[in-house]
């Protein structure tokens, strides 16, 4: 079970409120375990979503941040912005043929 689930929309308009809720969840979690964020519901997002994930990664400190179920476009956006090195634990679901 993920520690936090992203909503369907994460743009610059929503990111501030979402990061506040996410940080509350991070503080409530077990610091000895990786911190998981479920991105499977994510449909509409912009670069603010990447900024949010980087902020969460920074606050997770020694815990690893794993993003589960990310849409492929999120991983492509991270690569386009040169942030793929910082968000290496983005798990993109396999596509079904």
TrEMBL record:
Residue span, MlaB-like STAS domain: 5-84
Domain of life of the organism encoding this protein: Bacteria
InterPro entries xref list: MlaB-like_STAS, STAS_dom_sf
Organism: Thiomonas delicata
Cross-referenced SUPFAM superfamilies: SpoIIaa-like (SSF52091)
Phylogenetic lineage: Bacteria, Pseudomonadati, Pseudomonadota, Betaproteobacteria, Burkholderiales
Protein name: MlaB-like STAS domain-containing protein
Regions annotated as coiled coil: none
Pfam families: STAS_2 (PF13466)
């Amino acid at each position: 079970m993920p520690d936090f689930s992203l909503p369907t929309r994460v743009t610059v308009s929503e990111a501030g409120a979402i990061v506040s809720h996410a940080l509350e969840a991070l503080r409530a979690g077990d610091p000895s375990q990786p911190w998981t964020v479920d991105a499977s519901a994510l449909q509409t997002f912009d670069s603010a979503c990447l900024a949010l994930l980087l902020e969460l990664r920074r606050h997770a400190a020694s815990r690893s941040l794993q993003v589960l179920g990310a849409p492929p476009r999120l991983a492509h956006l991270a690569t386009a912005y040169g942030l793929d090195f910082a968000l290496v634990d983005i798990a993109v679901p396999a596509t079904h043929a």
